[in-house]
Amino acid sequence: MDLTNKKLILERKHKKVYESNDCIIKSFSKEHPKSDVFNEALNQARIEETGLNVPKVLAVEEMDGGWAIIMLKKNGKTLKEIMESDKENIRKYMDMFVDIQLDIHSKSSPLLNRMNLKFSRQINELKELSATIRYELLTRLDGMKKHTKVCHGDFNPSNVLIGEDGEISIIDWSHATQGNAAADAANTYLLFALEDKELADMYMDIYCKKSDTARQYVQRWLSIVAAQRLSKNVESEKELLMQYIDVVDYL
């Protein structure tokens, strides 16, 4: 494990990501809960056991007053970079993207956190939504089928790496759960819609066709996943997410 010559490649509010010769170091601020860091590393280790091609966790260590996850580096360009540089073939890349997601959904990991419990906790904590809306969202969530498929939780083209030899790697498993694949698809749709509605609709069409899933079924998850994403408090996303939350059907 070589951590010399580490270079900052990404910075967020509570984390910094570095790369070294053969490792990726995800370093969290001292305010970030230690338990969350260890839980993320545990998620990653459990996903490794499914056989999916993901970065191997090497260590969890104290660093700069906080904690850091050290992983084996996977080389390649993100699928997002490739899609943006070759827009004429965007549908081909979207086909590939959906195939990767379906492969993820074909896996199981019985010890992963359960999606419905995580979503329920996040929605309950959303005090900016009225008690009536929270009740309707939780009622809808409770009525959804409880599956146990591996779900990435933040699946978008930035989290897929394509190596020069064509090797496909999937990164950033901090939001992984076991649950309903349609919910994971609804979340991916929202991630696209936050940037490009046309691309989001292309994704939805391809996903539903390849998975033989009714579009209406994925759409029933949109208000739920929009609410749980609202809990992340990303100011630039709030307006669009509220639009999806407002489509809740009232009894």
From TrEMBL:
Q: Does the keyword Transferase apply?
A: yes
Q: Which UniProt keywords apply?
A: Transferase
Q: Does the keyword Cell membrane apply?
A: no
Give residue ranges for domain Aminoglycoside phosphotransferase.
22-212
Q: Annotated Gene Ontology MF terms?
A: transferase activity
Q: What Pfam family does this protein match (any one)?
A: APH
Write down the InterPro entries for this protein, in alphabetical order.
Answer: AGP_Transferase (IPR051678), Aminoglycoside_PTrfase (IPR002575), Kinase-like_dom_sf (IPR011009)
PANTHER family in alphabetical order: AMINOGLYCOSIDE PHOSPHOTRANSFERASE-RELATED-RELATED
- The protein here is known as Phosphotransferase enzyme family protein
Tell me the organism.
Lachnoanaerobaculum saburreum F0468
Q: What is the lineage of its organism?
A: Bacteria, Bacillati, Bacillota, Clostridia, Lachnospirales
